[in-house]
Design goal:
Strand order of the largest sheet: 6-7-8-3-9-10
Shape: elongated
Length: 614
């Protein structure tokens, strides 16, 4: 992740314009709540000015006459108290309306965009996800969205401030033009200070938001790779890596705080300076008889009330750079291309094994070709083994069968229909895949098997038995209701694989794809699973990516892949006889197991087993 380019940091006017465009988009998304909050802010603004007017009236008609008479008049005091109380109540109502409306608007926008980002994550293919770190994606869905709508909370307040300034200006001019002139000197000074504050804050806020994403990425990567960090003794290195990016974020945030520390006192001081000027000039105006004491009190009090509201505009402007950076990062997700298109066709009805055709399929990752013109057929109810050396494209072919990606050319057909023509959800409803890495959720065993679907217990147990998982699940502390921990950390690798297999089987898929899905289980358990799958009355066509001969031998047909191309296909016995590369590959484990040192003489000029390359 790179920091923003200097032009983006220095183009303050452009950032402000883009920030206001984001605010405009937010208002259009939630117009009613914005109107509700703005109404409250306007009521608050009007009653704030009214409180100063009322205080001036109370001064002229209750306080000064009381001093002149030597005692207060009860009626005047009660009237003054009632008037001040009424203004305070209306002001409080406006405050509540503004805060409730602004908070609801902000939280609803954040929730809306989190859902949009999450839906986009689900729509985008795995190839897109491979190009973005998990930490970055988490930051997009959390802190970046928060940053985008951070200025929403003070926005209605700032609109109310504009209303307040308009009303206050009118009150100042009507009360006394000379004292109004004093105020009009202070207001531009406050506005200029706000502009200077924003220009200082923009680059720092932008860099800080970028660094938040970096901190999130590094932290997630270190935590997610805890096993590697621990086993290879990388704790110190990872700590140093995290400290480096955290220190950069700390330094940037300290810079933000320094700017605030410089400008906040000035923001507070200017209105007070205005009050002093009003009192100083007002004293001479009262002495000359140009104004009453109540007028001076009214204007001075109005200045004390305007100090914090005027800063509300500065709060919005200060948060705009952070909002713009967050929006850019979120927009990269929302505008990303590559979402899989869907058609309107429906797959064949369930209950019958699927017929799968791979027709002239080619595929590439970032222009690196993986599959070249691959074609094969998996007839209804048959088991096809895809065999080949590492990097030959087997897992890619498995992913294409369940449409985790689309081929660059060619077609993958299910029951004669191109997967791209099927309606959304049709492929997962008829096909299931189990990969070598078995992901389990932090849930119970039952929750991981059903994934929230309403599946009868007998079907859950039947799938677990077929996957050779029922016995060890029953031995867990709470059986099927045992929590397995994050990623299934309380289970062994073989147990996780068996639960993942049972999770696929419980759906009775018409197409079952196993990508080396039994690599972590004992050979005897694997044999029991494979024989069970073969003998079970499943409505499934099975495509299995395998290395072990025990797995391959159970297939009706073997597809031998090398360098992304199909070299040959036939039975296991046939390929052993006519494909030396295939024979070396599938017997490598047996040869090494029989002669781990590679010292036995070899026949027909073959290399020792330990040195041969499959």
């Amino acid at each position: 992740m790179t920091p923003p380019p200097p032009t983006a940091v220095l183009a303050g006017g452009r950032v402000v314009r883009r920030g206001f465009a984001i605010l405009g988009r937010s208002i259009r998304e939630e117009p009613r709540l914005f109107a509700f909050a703005t109404l409250g802010a306007s009521i608050f603004a009007a009653t704030t000015v009214a409180s100063a007017v009322v205080l001036g009236i109370v001064t002229d008609r209750a306080i000064i006459p009381a001093f002149d008479a030597g005692r207060p008049r009860d009626g005047a005091l009660w009237a003054a108290g009632a008037l001040l109380l009424g203004v305070a109540v209306v002001k409080s109502v406006g405050l509540v309306l503004r805060r409730v409306g602004a908070s609801l608007m902000q939280t609803r926008l954040q929730a809306t965009y989190r859902r949009r980002v999450t839906r986009q994550y689900l729509r985008l293919p795995l190839s897109w996800h491979h190009q973005h770190s998990t930490g970055e994606l988490l930051s997009n869905a959390h802190s970046d969205i928060e940053a985008v709508f951070y200025p929403i909370a003070p926005l209605p307040f700032s609109v109310g401030v504009v209303v307040m300034l308009v009303i206050a200006s009118g009150v100042l001019v009507v009360t006394d033009p000379v004292l109004a002139a004093v105020g009009f000197v202070v207001f531009p000074a406050l506005a200029g200070l706000n502009v200077a504050f924003t220009r200082q804050m923009q680059p720092k806020a932008m860099r800080a938001q970028q660094l938040r994403g970096e901190v999130s990425s590094v932290a997630h990567e270190s935590i997610d790779g805890a096993l590697v960090v621990k086993t290879l003794g990388r704790e110190t290195a990872e700590t140093d890596r995290f400290r480096e990016v955290s220190d950069r974020l700390r330094d940037e945030m300290v810079g933000v705080s320094r700017v605030r520390a410089l400008f906040d006192p000035l923001m507070d001081a200017l209105p007070n300076v205005g009050v002093l000027l009003v009192v100083f000039v007002g004293a001479y105006r009262v002495r000359s008889g140009a104004v009453d004491a109540g007028d001076v009190v009214r204007i001075a009090y109005l200045f004390t009330l305007l100090a914090i509201p005027i800063r509300g505009i500065g709060w919005v402007l200060a948060d705009l750079p952070r909002s713009v950076v967050g929006w850019d990062r979120v927009s990269r997700v929302l505008d990303a291309d590559g979402a899989l298109p869907y058609g309107d066709a429906a797959a064949a009805p369930s209950g019958l094994p699927a017929h799968v055709e791979v027709d002239s399929v080619s595929f590439a990752y970032d222009d690196a070709d993986v599959l070249h013109d691959v074609s094969f057929t998996a007839d209804d109810g048959r088991t096809i083994a895809v065999v080949g050396p590492t990097g030959s494209g087997k897992s890619t072919a498995a992913a294409l069968l369940v449409r985790l990606a689309d081929p660059r050319s060619g077609e993958v057909r299910l029951d004669g229909a191109d997967l791209r023509d099927l309606r959304q959800g049709a492929v997962p409803a008829h096909a299931a895949v189990v990969f070598q890495e078995s992901f389990l959720f932090d849930d119970t065993v039952r929750g991981n098997l059903t994934l929230g679907a309403d599946v009868p217990d007998r079907d859950v147990e039947a799938a677990a038995k077929l996957a050779q998982a029922h016995d060890f699940i029953r031995a867990l502390p709470n059986g099927y209701d045992t929590l397995v921990g994050e990623r299934g950390t309380t289970l062994s690798g073989g147990q996780r694989q068996r639960i993942a297999l049972a999770r696929a089987l419980v759906r009775r898929p018409r197409l079952l794809v196993l990508d080396d899905a039994t690599s972590s289980v004992d050979p005897s358990v694997e044999a029991a699973i494979l024989h069970g799958l073969r003998d079970a009355e499943l409505p499934s066509t099975v495509v299995v990516v395998a290395y072990r001969q025990a797995t391959i031998a159970l297939a009706d047909e073997v597809v031998y892949v090398h360098a992304g191309r199909i070299v040959d296909r036939g039975s296991h016995a046939e390929l052993l006889l006519r494909q030396p590369g295939y024979a070396r590959l599938v017997t490598a484990y047996d040869d090494v197991a029989a002669d781990p040192e590679g010292t036995e003489p070899t026949a027909a000029g073959r290399e020792p087993a330990a040195t041969r390359r499959p």
